[in-house]
Amino acid sequence: MPPAHAPARAPLPRRTRRAALVGVACTLLVTLALVTGDLLYRLDDGVATDPSSPWKIDEDRSVAELVASAALLVAAALLARRARTLPQSPVLAAWAAVLLLVVADDLLRIHETVGGAVASRAGLTEAFGLDPQGWGELAVWGVLGAVSLAVLVATFLRSGPTARRVSWWLLGCVGVLGLAAVGVDMLAIVVEPFVAGDVSWVVAMLESAGELVAAGLFLTVAWCFHRATATVPAPSPEAVAVPA
To answer: Can you tell me where the transmembrane regions are (predicted)?
Structure first.
């Protein structure tokens, strides 16, 4: 007798799909608005008059960075809340902790500061177009990534199917964030000495825009999951039929 096929996954509810589309649309609109604000700032010669303007998209503590951090903090709060209310979902708490780590790294410049210290103490040298600072930052990202992955895998194996399913969506968001925060960041370090200011801005814009999109996607996934797993209100006593 042939083995029975596993049942197909149920499609996402219509309201969840609608919420996801709204979240993606809002993410792209906010990213476009901030990139446009940065471009207008540069075209208006803002770099010469105010080189550290908060509208400069690749500046520390910029409006773009604060918006991305706020989105990640809200996503972490939503996931932490569901970790408390859903059974068998420790991986959601792990995801919340990872997002908090990402925010702390951005605001406190952990990978830049520690990466510079690692490069200095280890005596790293330039290789493959990447300077010692870049290699130090890459090493720090590797350690943080390995620890985060170990925690996520351990909690994933202890979680139920609902929490596991949303984890795959969140992992996709990590891919977008990693491409922008690590991949494009390392590319910026490599190409900066060889490119003109306009090209350098494009690379910086791609990195910051990618981080904004990733933060928006994290928030979208967390919000959709929060809505989809909301507790159904218990029926009122009057609506419950009393057996004769």
So the answer is: 20-43, 63-80, 92-110, 138-157, 169-189, 201-225
> What is the SS3 assignment for 94?
helix
Under a CB-based contact definition with an 8 Å cutoff, are residues 193 and 227 in contact? no
- pLDDT, average across residues 13-39: 90
What's this model's pTM, rounded to 2 decimal places?
A: 0.79
Are the CB atoms for 46 and 55 separated by under 8 Å? yes
Q: Look at the chain and count its residues.
A: 244
**Quick one: average pLDDT of 221-228?**
94
Q: Taking Cα atoms as reference points, which of 170, 19, 154 lies closest to residue 90?
A: 154
Give the pLDDT confidence score for residue 155 in this predicted structure.
97
Q: How far apart are the first and last CA of the chain?
A: 47
Determine contact, residues 23/227, Cβ cutoff 8 Å.
no
Contacting residues for 182 by C-beta, under 8 A, at least 6 apart: 138, 141
**What values do phi and psi take at 54, rounded to 5?**
-65, -15
Number of helices (H) and strands (E), helices first, in the chain? 9, 0
Cβ neighbours for 206, distance < 8 A, ≥ 6 positions apart: 180, 184
pLDDT band (50, 70, 90) for residue 128: low
